[in-house]
Amino acid sequence: MDFKKITIRHKILIVSLLLTILPVTIVGFYAYDQTEAGTWSQLEGYLNDQLFLEKAYIESTFSLAQDKVNSDLGVARTVFYSNGNPEIVDGQMILGKDYVVNNNFEIVDNVKNMVGGTATVFQVLDGEAVRISTNVITNEGERAVGTTVSQPVYDTVVTKGEMFYGRAWVVNAWYLTAYEPIRNSAGEIIGILYVGVLEDPFINTIRHHMGGIVVGETGYIYIMDSEGNILIHPSIEGENVYEYDFAKDIITNKEGIIAYEWEGREKIAGYTYYEPNDWYIVSNTYYEEFAGPLLAIRNSLIMAVLVFVILGILASFLLSKSISGGIEKIVTDFNDITNATLQGKLDKRANIDVGIDLEAIPRSFNQVLDAVKENEEKLQTFIDNVPVGIFRTNSDGKALQANPEMIRIIGRESKEETLEYMQNVGEQLYVNQERRNELINVLAKQGHVENFEFEALRADGKHAWLMINARTNVKAKPGDNPFLIDGFVLDITERKKAEEALKKTELKYRQAHNILQKVIESPKDVVIFALDKDYQYIAFNQNHQITMEHIWDAKIEIGVNMLDYIKDPADAEKAKVNFDRVLAGEAFTIIEEYGDSLLGRKWYENVYSPLESDKGNVIGLTLFLTNITERKQTEMALLQAKVLAEESNQIKSEFIANMSHELRTPLNSVIGFSQMLNEKIFGDLNEKQMHYVSNIQKSGNHLLELINDILDISKIESGNMEYSPEMTDLKQIMDEIIVLTEPLVKEKNIGFEANSEFEKLEINVDKMKIKQIMFNLLSNAIKFTPKNGKVWFDSKIMNGNIQISVSDSGIGIPLEHQKAIFDPFKQVSSSANRTYGGTGLGLAIVKYYVEMHSGEIHVESEVGKGSKFTFTIPIGLRNA
Ligand code: ADP
């Protein structure tokens, strides 16, 4: 169904139909409901009245029965006590002197003969009451002697000493009973006297009575107990109805009215409870027997409702036709006016001829239109005159509106041309399409854009800077084309120009500032001049004048081409190249050499800057020359000296390396052969020969040591000492060195000790060099310590460094020598040297090797007391 096609007429029709049918139906239902309720309450009253009467009848019947029980008990009492007062003698109940009650049925049979019913005498025995005389006969046809009374009866009569009344099933029938205590002369309860009246005759009376009662046309009264047993009923007496819901409801509620289905027909029943017998008295009938008149009323009501509905439909048709005619006219009219208004025609007014009822509507609408027109005119004047471009686009990004300022900004004559040019979110307008995409993205994301500046290409080909503020009512996703709904545009071209100009001025001032700074910093040497585009002097300072005269013997003048003064053609060419670079707009600083070969060439630091007109065109150049010849000469001299020094050092080192090699070869044979002689491999030697040979060997070894050290030092100095690190256990190296120096220690009987904070410490070092360091320090310590002295090693980790020290209790080093001993060939005294031997190179090598590992070494020492050499090596060591 197309809901848009439901016209006002349909609506009126529906409403008026609802307005007639609803009330008629509601009234109909209400009337029916009322009648039904009335019928119900009548029926309820009827059933309740009957129950009340029936309950009263049952009560009076049973009160008669109770009276009979009481009078029977009176008879039994009289007969019992006429034989004397009771006592228990030898376990038997005796009346008077010697009347035995046990197994004596005279009393009970007499009672039966007089009043009918049953009678019993009980004797209390060991917490029980036992029948000792009775006329109650068991199913086996014997007197029920020896059986006991029930517990509730015992509790009431014997324990509490009260009377007991009640219904009881005695042997084979229901009895209405009474029990009373039998007391001896001391007042103790020794037995119970009982009488019972058969209930049956009383029930039969009630059954007979109920059989005569008719409820409605076919209804009746019946009696049920709380287990659902039907006790009195015209047809189903003796059956059980507990399974039926209605029976359960009756048993639970005890009193009330219930309606239920019985064999497909609706039944209604009133019920009440008679507690003494656990009886439910139920009076029931078929509902239809009472509802006959009600159905008649219902049928006539339905008829009445139908008639009213038909009449209502007719009336609604007529009404809807008359109202909708007028409204449709108004709506059509309003639609026309709205369309006209949207096209800007605000003069159209609504037709008032729509019938007297609805006339007020077009009248008020026309008033609104008048007000709108007035406002619109004011707004239009504002929009036409405001110096802000205002536009509006539709949902396709097509421009719909533009005010006169907008037309001016775009650079067109008419509104139509302007709108045409602004198509598709101003696609033609943007010099930079990236910027347009940016605008679209911001709009899509935020729904609006503020002070968005862009460079525009106007329709007349001119460039302009525009600033746009716009708002879209569409929440588009980023990347979608949002459509601008409203926006305004400011022409900020003038402002941009001003900003640009300001920037240029700032640049110029900055240049001027730099120039000034130069002049201030070095007034003596700075040369300044300015040239125009044809290299002709515009201005120059006195320094320049002097320099030009000095170098080229030139007397310079304003307006003359500068290149004409430069006598060296190469210099002139070089200058021209630089001038052209500046005239092309570049600014730069370079160091150049210029000058007469006769007077010597000079070095300048030259700052080239373009000279610009107000419009930013290059019209010439300025040049600042600073004479840096002296600085340059010093630099060059230093450079030459350095190269020379490095060269000679290299030569020296190479020489030493070669020499050492040449010396070592013959020395090895000197040592080797003297050793062989010493070991007497070639035969015996006399004492003198032995002495000399071992001198040769000792001197040879010393010489070899010296050469090796010299070789190391020269390698170090020529920068050829290689460094090859590997993971090395320092503790292990220390142990190796200790083993190596052991013979020396023993020879001088020196007390040696090694204290280490670590068991194993692997770090990345050049193993051979570390070994050399430790060996040199330890052999020095042993060497400079007298016999029976002490030498010791300490090693620990501190601040990420390994710190190893070698201490001795030896001769010590005077303070003034402590620094020099690390230099090559330095020894504390040459006489001491003769005593102790050595080359004066060991510590120099140690220091260099320690530094190779980024470590440090220092000495603490006191003359006569001893020395302590400590070196450190960082644990996280470089790899190469
Ligand atoms: P040398 O080969 O002469 O031992 P070194 O460079 O190893 O050369 O030592 C330089 C000088 O420093 C030694 O000659 C000695 O005078 C002094 N020296 C070095 N170690 C000790 C020390 N443990 N005790 C006293 N003097 C020392």
Number of strands: 30
Radius of gyration: 70 Å
Poorly predicted regions are none
Q: Judging from the principal axes of the Cα atoms, what is the shape?
A: flat
What average pLDDT do the residues reach? 84
> Could you tell me the strand content as a percent range?
15-25%
As a percent range, the share of helical residues equals 40-55%
Bound molecules: adenosine-5'-diphosphate
The largest sheet is:
5 strands, antiparallel
Main sheet strand line-up: 5-4-8-7-6
| Terminal Cα span | 90 Å
Estimated structural class: alpha+beta
Count of runs of 4 or more consecutive helical residues: 20
What does this entry look like structurally?
- The structure is a single chain.
- This protein is of the alpha+beta class.
- Helix content is 47%, strand content 24%.
- It has 20 helices and 30 strands.
- Strand 6 and strand 7 form a beta hairpin.
- Helix 1 (8-81) packs antiparallel against helix 4 and helix 18 (767-783) runs antiparallel to helix 20 (842-852).
- Bound molecules: adenosine-5'-diphosphate.
- The site of adenosine-5'-diphosphate (ADP) has 22 residues, from helix 18, helix 19 and helix 20.
Keyword list:
880 residues; alpha+beta; 5-stranded antiparallel beta sheet; 20 helices; 30 strands; 47% helix; 24% strand; binds adenosine-5'-diphosphate; HATPase_dom; cell membrane; transmembrane; phosphoprotein
